[in-house]
Structure formats: C-alpha cells, structure tokens
C-alpha cells in the first residue's frame, strides 16, 4: 500500500486580487475499508496561510474537506501564477480512532508509526491583476493556462480602468493581443480616460495591433471625453499610416470632437501633420469643414499658423480660399492680421487672386505690383487657370508679354488641358496667338478631349489663325487643313454670333446663350469666365 488518502483536486485554484484574501479547498478520502486514519496538512509558509482543519481523523472510506485561506497579497510576485510554497498531506492508521478525537502532531513522526506523505498538492493563483501582470511579462504559456481556467479575467479592470487588452497594446505585444482575441476579449471596454484598446493602438501607431482589433470588429467611432475617435488620436500622434488604415475601415473622417468641435483635418493642420493631412484628403475628408466654435476651415487654421505647406495641400484639394469664419474673415484676412509674410501665405491667397484679376483686366501696373510683392506667376486656381491663361483669353498682349518675360510657363495647362494658346485661339486673338508662338507655344498640344489648336481655330472659323498655325514651323496639314478649306469662304463663328446667340448681362456672372435659351456648346470659357 502506497497511500491512505486520495486528494481531490490536487490543483488548488486561488482567485485573488491585491489586498484581498483568497480561498481554495480540497477533499481527503480514506481508502481504508476498516481502519480510520489521521491526517495532517502542513505548509512550508505557515505565516501566509490558514488551514482548516490542519489535523483530523477520517472514518473508513470517509471523506473530509480542507480549506486553505491565503492572506492578502501586497504585491504580485514574478513566480505567479504558480506558487513556490510547499504543501504536504501526511496520514497514519489509527485503529479505534474516533472522529472527535484530538489528534497529536506527534502521531506523524516516523519514530512511532508508519507515516504516508503526499506532496502532490499544487497551488495556482489567478485574477485580473495576475492576468495583467502575465501580459506585461509576456508570459504566453502561463497566460493561456490562467485564461483556460477562467476566461472572464481578461476583462477585469485595474484601478485605472485598464484591462489586459489595454496592457497588451501599451506593451506593444501583438502576439498577446492575438491570444486575448482568441479568448474573446471585450474590445469596447474603456479605461479611466475613456480610451478603448483601438484608441491606444491608434495613439501609439501600432499598425499590426490595430489591424487585429479592426479585423475583430473594434469600433472606429468610440469616443473619449474630449470626443476624440481613434482617428483623432492617430492624427495627433502623427501616425500617417494609422490614419490611412482607419480611413479604409469605415471611419468617419469628418467626425467632430465634442470639446472644441475640430475635425481630424483641423487637428492635422494645428499639429503640422502634413502627411496625415494629405491622407485624409485623399480618402475623402471634407476640405472645407468648419469647426464648431469659430466656423473656421482647415485653410483658416493653416493661414493663422503661417503653414505654407498645409495651405498648398489644402488648395491642391480644392479648399475654398474665400471661405469666411464666424467673424466673416477669409483665410487671407487672418494671415494679414497675424502678420505672416506675403511670400508664405498671401501668394496662395490674396496675391494669387489679385494677380489673376489684374491679368484678366489687362492692368499692367497691378500685375507688376502683385509679382513684386511675391505672387507666384504660375499659381493656378481650382480650374487650373494661371495668369497667362487669363491674359491670353482676354487678348491683353502687353500683360502677356510681360508675364512671358518674367518666366510664365507658355505650355501650362488647365484641368481640361487648355494652354494659353488654346485660350487665345478660342477668342480669336491673332496677335496673342503670334506672341505665344514666338515664345514656344506648341501648336500640336491637345486638350483633354483631344482638340489641337488647329481643330479649335477651324471649329470657330478663325481661318486666318488656322492658316497661321498650319504654316507655323511646318505643322502637319491633315484634318485641320481640310476643315479649313471647307470653311475658308465663311465668316468666323463670332461673326454670326449676333444672329444665333446673345449674351446675358443681367447677372454678375454673364453667360453665352443660344436664342432658344440653351447654353452655347462652342465657347466653353465664355460661360464661366466672362466678366
């Protein structure tokens, strides 16, 4: 015989937290059919545990329960969840022993009787704090063992509201995040700052962790007390690729923070996060979104900061340079009030507008003044029109000549592929056509719709301009020459305009209309840009 009692279970599970007692129990069953046995439960650390009962007698085939209470832990040792404390169950046969008989510890000395010792008891400590400590230590195997005992522990929060998932994200351990996801961690638990795990991943730029969380359905619209979503956190951290990831996962790019009413675009401008700014705009963020407090657009904020790079990005994506805030101020007004140098800001705002207006109206002095003050000679508006396009369209050869001498790009194109040469031809300005050709304009340049300069001249019936173009530097005489010959006897389209079209000057933006009231399909520029 190798034992007198059977211990069940041999693994004692203590569920505890710092400062709290923990209890576990097991049973002892006497395997003797006719003899009572005495038992003693002893530990190597008697000051840490209370054992009830530590001694006793069990009748034949009888069972008794033993409870072990662990005193409150003041800290979590690194050995957890396992315990280095030892427990032994000793047993001896006591013929004629009674259940209520007092058991003497001396019975378990080998001098008098045969004593059986069982060292099989194991202790394991589990709890929310222990799970978080295992996460912090990166103890994957031990963590799995604890969670297999009680998977609910991974959502237990500490005094700061953090769960095991918050700790795993903070420790930047994607393999542990994956394990916690396997045990169905709640991804929407918020810490004392009301931050979810995705907030934390976004704030720290942890791409892989964020991908894992998003794949399991983490909410992208969760908000902290400031009204920040994970996207706001990513932008303020300057994590451009995180912004891209969130933008591609059904994130509201125009969500407004509840404290100051800013969108992620406003934050990107305020924090100088240009890469984040571009990614937001590329993915459809509203470029002219207003904040709640001042009704400022991101361009207002960029102008206030003097951030030329941010302004360039916003303007590239169509920001309204004439937008007004709650005080009716434009971005240019704010830039001027802040005292930012013209070459940083007003070139893209007020000076660009002044240069375009001067070129359109043929006011040489105004054009020269704006260029002297730092306006970009090739600065484009939202249609891609530059100062040379406007001068060419209006036939202001003196202004155009000066712009060309100052380095204006004669081959520049607007969004529809029109060069200044196309604009001059469209309005029949032969002198302007000659000037542009002398400065290297390309006759074969095509618009987005495939129209060459010769096509445009023949379409509008400018036979003299068409001949000039066809004869310029040996231009190929193909379809354009044929059309020209067919119309050589006809007047120009503008010559017949009086009979077929009329110009509506009743509004501030004049338009060309056919007699039946339908906008003219011919002169595309006149509808939009006629003064």
UniProtKB/TrEMBL annotation:
<dbReference type="InterPro" id="IPR008962">
    <property type="entry name" value="PapD-like_sf"/>
</dbReference>
<feature type="repeat" description="ANK">
    <location>
        <begin position="383"/>
        <end position="415"/>
    </location>
</feature>
<dbReference type="InterPro" id="IPR013783">
    <property type="entry name" value="Ig-like_fold"/>
</dbReference>
<keyword id="KW-0040">ANK repeat</keyword>
<dbReference type="Pfam" id="PF00023">
    <property type="entry name" value="Ank"/>
</dbReference>
<feature type="repeat" description="ANK">
    <location>
        <begin position="193"/>
        <end position="225"/>
    </location>
</feature>
<feature type="repeat" description="ANK">
    <location>
        <begin position="160"/>
        <end position="192"/>
    </location>
</feature>
<protein>
    <recommendedName>
        <fullName>MSP domain-containing protein</fullName>
    </recommendedName>
</protein>
<dbReference type="InterPro" id="IPR036770">
    <property type="entry name" value="Ankyrin_rpt-contain_sf"/>
</dbReference>
<dbReference type="InterPro" id="IPR002110">
    <property type="entry name" value="Ankyrin_rpt"/>
</dbReference>
<feature type="repeat" description="ANK">
    <location>
        <begin position="226"/>
        <end position="258"/>
    </location>
</feature>
<dbReference type="Pfam" id="PF12796">
    <property type="entry name" value="Ank_2"/>
</dbReference>
<dbReference type="InterPro" id="IPR000535">
    <property type="entry name" value="MSP_dom"/>
</dbReference>
<keyword id="KW-0677">Repeat</keyword>
<feature type="repeat" description="ANK">
    <location>
        <begin position="260"/>
        <end position="292"/>
    </location>
</feature>
<feature type="repeat" description="ANK">
    <location>
        <begin position="294"/>
        <end position="326"/>
    </location>
</feature>
<feature type="domain" description="MSP">
    <location>
        <begin position="4"/>
        <end position="126"/>
    </location>
</feature>
<feature type="repeat" description="ANK">
    <location>
        <begin position="416"/>
        <end position="441"/>
    </location>
</feature>
<dbReference type="Pfam" id="PF00635">
    <property type="entry name" value="Motile_Sperm"/>
</dbReference>
